[in-house]
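Task card 7
Instruction: Convert sequence to structure tokens.
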Amino acid sequence: MSKKIIMMTENVAGLGHTKAAESLAMALAKVDTNVECRIIPMMNLVHPHVEKVSREAYYLMIKHVPRLWGILYDNEQWLSFMFKNKLAKLWKSKLEKFFQDEKPDLVVATHAFCLGAASLLRREGIIPSLGAVITDYGFNGFWVYPDIDFYIVPHEDIKEYVRKKFGISGERIWPTGIPIHPDFSEFVQTHKEELRKKMDLEPKLITILLTGGGWGFGPMEEILQHLLTIPTPLQILVITGNNTKLYQRLSKIQSDHHHIRVFGYISSLIHVMAVCDLIITKPGGLTTAEALALNIPLFIHESIYGQESRNASFLLERGLAHSFNTPKDLVYHLQGFINDFSKLEHIRHKTNDYGKPSSSYDSAKRILHHLQFLH
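Output:
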């Protein structure tokens, strides 16, 4: 008998939440063809203007008053205590008919926006089972509700944190990893030189990936210009995401000393990441998970206050990444790693304990096992 799963997600704070839902849905379809998955951006169901207003407000805050967002996020425990149950009751009235009509066997949230409302509907039996997928290497109070059957978290360390901090039983916390594209599981590690030849790249040059996530955030143009001052010849791959203006500007930059290749939006980064020796990026949850899955060292720039700051802390505390304050600072430290490649290999070795290339399949199998015992 086929099973119906609805995945609640949002695109307000980046593409990672939706990407995780898509990756999990792909893995579920491959493991069991009788599973039907629908990915729904829930804000549009609450009200057609909620998503637009929320995205614009988030963009403005991140661009103009990022510390305010950081303050709000750092006080999430108090904010969640004050507001999450009120919001849950408000959104429940908007979503009840949708779930009554859809009759899903399971609802999985990759964003916390409507999770409270879904928890209330789970309590009333309108939603038979409810799970949550945490897409960052941190955890906040807006994810915590008594009627959630399971949590998918990025790593065993996060599981322990959630269990101790929020009192959630270990059986309900599955450390199968942030769901990343199933290709990461199926990818066969090949020598980087061979992969570079397939992409028509220089096979022997040290290769660096520079990215600012789906929006092309951060001082990417300034970072690229500083990278070009490094005397060692480099191959620099740049991904600007959906930032078309940035793509146009960076595509015009040329160098006689270094090789530069600029990409726009790429749906799956696996083949670009796999050719690289290191990645310069803001520490988004999904990008972090993908890099760890391929055992690629990270250099962190411009983390967004809040969730990305916690991702950065997770990486830095475990020696999985290196951070820098300015592009000039980056060049100084990066030159040291280029001169002594064993430093990069040391970081790469540490990532073996944290990368989860099979996260989507492992999560899908746990979910399907869970579904077997619902009826």
